[in-house]
Design a protein that fits this description.
Oligomer: heterodimer
Number of strands of chain A: 28
Number of helices of chain A: 14
Mean pLDDT of chain B: 68
Helix content of chain B: 55-70%
Shape of chain A: globular
Distance between the termini of chain A: 46 Å
Strand content of chain B: under 5%
Number of strands of chain B: 2
CATH class of the largest domain in chain A: Alpha Beta
CATH architecture of the largest domain in chain A: 2-Layer Sandwich
Largest interface: A-B, 40 and 41 residues
Number of helices of chain B: 17
Low-confidence stretches of chain A: none
Structural class of chain B: mainly alpha
Number of domains of chain B: 3
Shape of chain B: elongated
Mean pLDDT of chain A: 84
């Protein structure tokens, strides 16, 4: 069976396409969003999702989140003396998604379509595929998130020959894409964004705003208080337009704090400016004006921020669409794409054309003798339709030069030192005067983001080539096998037990942050709960979990509102 | 005929026909299954669309008055490198590259173009304020808050107009600076200001487009200013400094020995030591300041530029410093003991003064600037 997975920075979702409709698969909490969060226990047991996020309050050092941001980098997380790479951690999340899907459908999941931000480079894409390989999941296709969103919004029903824009503000990334759909062709015209801008940044602003008003410093807070402030602000962010007063909820703050929607909006202005700039750049790349965009679709949980909708309406003079739950849109699209890859009849006719989201090129010596830094010479411009193959000619700069060092860079900066070096190789040329030997450098970018570089020496006909899918961050078969072994030592906490654990941790976490009377009441509840757990009667346990859960909710509500 | 034969249609001006043909081909040659054929079709498709767009733009231009200043903008840039009448007395006549003039004060033509657009007033306002601020007192223009008016740039709705305004301002930065450099060897808009302007207008993002629009030295001038100061660090920097100090020390001791061979020089150890010490202090000061200038020059915020208005690289700076300190040597002696050395050093000082005056008269540059091909800029 093939499923669609939205492997998100903050939350992950999986879905299947069945009977002409998309079904989002609930996790063991019967929730559709699974936090991309993993918590480790000393004995090798791991908790994934909501239970891990709850556990983060009690064990912040043993809990990891947001690792998608570091996909393809050399960052590792050290937990109980063992190092985990973002790839390995992502594979744990994927494993959880697959387990949920298998439990839901009672079928074996063998393949998946996984969504990645349009901004992901070749290495990051490869890392995602490898994360899946670690759990023997075959990636049928990586799909760019905005493409998935466009697919989710039922292209068939759109008027033809119209351009539309997808704005995806997720937890950690921000993507903008312009697409056109006509005659069963879905053409991506341009994509852009910022892979370090998302809901978390807005949350951070709100947290800082709160701390500033309350006269405390975020970094001086204890781990528990910090967690409490973050989760409280997360809730407050959603209701800021209705409610502007926050009652005290940590011991350090004794007075109610008031933050109005307007104050928040003002504080967010620099972020909003970034968003506007990305949108405008995307329009520019697509050579379109805001008036020419027929429809704007908002995706991603953070697109619920009220002022984002206002902003988009102002720029485009039309109200953006948000009819599908913005948290689930991408998973919807991924599931449909999965069906599409399986040549499901409904969708087999849609042809997707995608663009390369960044510029690829090489470094050249500038004409100015005083400027010694290498200047970027683009070969494939960003937003070129892929697969693409482009060629540029370069000449020698010194008399009797015997070789040219060709380095391939990815990025948008004028100086190559600010761009990412993907690889380099040398080409031998016959000795001649400067400028007389010429080589043609061809870069081919395939649909999977794999780069092939070919150099042809014009005078001799010699060729040299480089295949870029072999960077240091990338894992070999052997390393994958090692990771697999390492991960196999970890025991995922049994699904049926998850809810019990989660609610217990939540109770403990609330307990730690409460005052005397509340503590006593809580203690009572926990003791009762423990008795029921010991009875080992599944029905009674399930009932107790939901009871304790709602009791805790009222605890939280009392403290917070 | 290309691209119509690839798309399998007759030449047309209709977008829909092209898209239909493209779609039909694409269903046959999917990008994932036939990458090569797909590329061929896609390129023909893009080319066909470009042809249509050009056709449409041509029609639009012939029908109504032009709404864009791009055509004139490019023309103005070209004329800049030819136009020499403002600078004919100045040096560098033989070098057309460095001769840009400020013809932007006369902006009647641009005025016409902006009027055609609804947001013309705002653009004009920004240009006027920019001009005013550029020629304002240094104390005023160095304050970033006085450049806030540029933020209005983002409220221009017409993206194309905005683009053109950005390019116009880019051109002006280079030309104003060039103008001021010719007049009194200073930059009208210094690094901080240009960085602030570029941040708003996002020149770093649009570098490729700017590079395709403007001559090489325009782009080089602005981007050199945009670059953060490169600071060497680590082991190589330490070695470089040690090597420099050793070199300075050798030069200084050799010079001191040379002076001591003269009958008028006092043959004392302390004199030699003091000479060397002074050289070292001055040169270490010069080499350790981040822009390879002496402490005093650095303190008053002087910068060195080459004749292409680029910040110089370090070897040029070193050459300049070396010539400068050699010329200053007699003064160091006078400073050490004016009663003994004044009469002896005076002829040397006079010669240096004459050389410098001649150099100034001829090139508007001091000797050491002329030798190293640099311009001092505050």
């Amino acid at each position: 069976m093939i499923i669609g997975i939205d492997l998100g920075t903050t939350n992950s979702v999986c879905a299947i396409y069945n009977d002409h409709k998309v079904t989002v698969i609930p996790n063991s909490f019967d929730e559709l969003l699974t936090p991309s969060c993993i918590s480790f226990e000393k004995n090798g047991t791991i908790h994934v999702g909501k239970s891990a996020r709850t556990r983060a309050a009690l064990h912040p050092k043993e809990t990891v989140a947001q690792f998608k941001r570091f996909m393809g980098s050399e960052k590792t997380y050290k937990i109980y003396g063992k190092k985990y790479t973002p790839v390995e951690l992502s594979s744990i999340i994927l494993q959880k998604m697959v387990a949920d899907a298998e439990a839901f459908t009672q079928q074996k999941v063998t393949e998946a379509v996984i969504s990645v931000p349009a901004y992901f480079n070749g290495i990051q894409r490869k890392s995602t595929i490898q994360a899946a390989a670690m759990i023997d999941l075959k990636v049928e296709k990586l799909i760019n998130e905005p493409t998935a969103a466009a697919i989710a919004y039922g292209l068939q029903n759109k008027p033809e020959y119209t351009d539309f824009m997808i704005i995806d503000l997720g937890g950690g990334t921000f993507d903008v894409s312009i697409m056109e759909y006509f005659d069963d062709i879905l053409e991506v015209k341009a994509s852009g964004g910022d892979n370090h801008l998302g809901g978390e940044d807005f949350l951070q602003i709100l947290v800082e705003l709160y701390c500033q008003k309350a006269g405390i410093k975020v970094n001086n807070l204890s781990a528990e208080d910090k967690q409490a402030v973050y989760s409280r602000m997360e809730l407050f962010k959603k209701e800021i337009n209705k409610q502007s007063v926050i009652e005290p909820f940590i011991k350090k703050v004794k007075v109610p704090i008031s933050i109005t929607g307007e104050t928040f909006e003002n504080a967010c202005r620099p972020l909003v400016k970034k968003i506007i700039k990305s949108i405008e750049l995307c329009l520019k790349d697509a050579q379109l004006t805001p008036q020419e965009i027929e429809e704007v679709i908002l995706v991603g949980g953070s697109s619920r921020l009220p002022f984002l909708k206002t902003l988009v309406t102002r720029i485009f003079k039309k109200i953006p669409r948000t009819d599908i739950n913005p948290d689930l849109t991408i998973a919807h699209g991924a599931a449909i794409q999965a069906a599409l890859k399986g040549k499901n009849k409904d969708l087999s006719d849609v042809v997707l054309t995608d663009v390369c989201p960044y510029t690829l090129g090489t470094g050249v010596v500038g004409n100015s003798v005083y400027d010694q830094s290498l200047i970027f010479s683009p070969i494939i411009e960003r937003n070129t339709v892929v697969p693409a193959s482009r060629v540029q000619s370069y000449v020698t700069v010194q008399d009797n030069q015997t070789k040219l060092k060709m380095a391939i860079y990815q990025g948008e900066s004028r100086l190559v030192k600010n761009n990412i070096k993907l690889g380099e190789f040398e080409v031998k040329v016959p000795k001649a005067k400067a400028g007389e030997e010429m080589i043609s450098l061809r870069i081919s970018y395939d649909i999977n983001g794999i780069l092939e570089v070919d150099a042809l020496v014009e005078s001799t006909g010699d060729t040299a080539s480089l295949l870029i899918n072999n960077s240091p961050q990338e894992l070999t078969e052997e390393q994958i096998a090692q990771s697999k072994q390492k991960l196999s030592l970890l025991k995922v906490h049994p699904r049926d037990n998850e809810a019990v654990k989660e609610v217990m941790w939540r109770a403990e976490s609330i307990y730690e942050n409460s005052l005397d009377e509340e503590r006593e009441a809580l203690n009572e509840l926990i003791m009762q709960f423990q008795v029921i757990i010991d009875s080992q009667d599944p029905k009674r346990i399930a009932q107790a979990v939901s009871e304790l859960s709602s009791a805790l909710e009222s605890f939280e509500a009392n403290r917070w509102l | 005929m290309y691209p119509w034969d690839v798309l399998g249609i007759d030449e047309t001006g209709d977008k829909k026909t092209i898209k239909k043909a493209y779609a039909k081909l694409l269903r046959k040659y999917r990008p994932d299954e036939h990458p090569d054929k797909f590329q061929e079709i896609n390129q023909a498709y893009q080319f066909a669309l470009t042809l249509i767009n050009e056709q449409l733009t041509d029609e639009a231009i012939s029908q109504e008055s032009p709404t864009s200043l791009s055509a004139v903008g490019v023309e103005a840039v070209d004329s800049v490198s030819i136009d020499k009448k403002n600078n004919s007395e100045n040096a560098g006549e033989d070098d057309p590259d460095t001769n840009f003039s400020v013809d932007t004060i006369d902006n009647d033509v641009e005025h016409e173009l902006f009027v055609a657009n609804g947001e013309a007033d705002l653009v004009e306002e920004i240009l006027a304020q920019f001009h005013q601020m550029a020629f304002a007192k240094y104390n005023i223009k160095k304050d970033p808050s006085n450049w806030q008016f540029l933020e209005q740039f983002h409220s221009i709705q017409d993206l194309q107009l905005r683009d053109e305004l950005s390019k116009e301002l880019f051109k002006r930065v280079v030309e104003y600076n060039s103008f001021q450099l010719k007049e009194n060897a200073t930059l009208l808009l210094t690094q901080n200001m240009v960085q602030a302007i570029a941040a708003v207008l996002e020149w770093e993002r649009d570098w490729h487009e700017l590079q395709n629009t403007f001559p090489e030295h325009y782009v080089a001038h602005v981007f050199k200013l945009l670059e953060p100061q490169t600071q060497l660090s680590g082991f190589s920097f330490l070695m470089l400094r040690i090597a420099t100090i050793c070199l300075e020390f050798t030069v200084a001791s050799l010079l001191a020995k040379l002076y001591m061979l003269r009958p008028w020089a006092p043959a004392t150890e302390s004199f030699e030591a003091i000479t060397i010490f002074m050289f070292m202090i001055i040169n270490i000061g010069a080499m350790t300041s981040e822009i390879s200038l002496s402490m005093v020059q650095y303190g008053v915020g002087l910068r060195i530029y080459d004749k292409y208005l680029n910040l110089t690289d370090s070897s040029t700076d070193k050459l300049r410093a070396l010539v400068f300190h050699l010329l200053m040597t007699p003064l160091y002696f006078i400073y050490y003991d004016s009663t003994i050395y004044l009469s002896m050093m005076l002829p040397v000082v006079a010669v240096i003064l004459v050389i410098n005056l001649f150099c100034w008269w001829k090139n508007k540059q001091l000797f050491h600037d002329w030798v190293s091909g640099t311009i001092m800029v505050k």
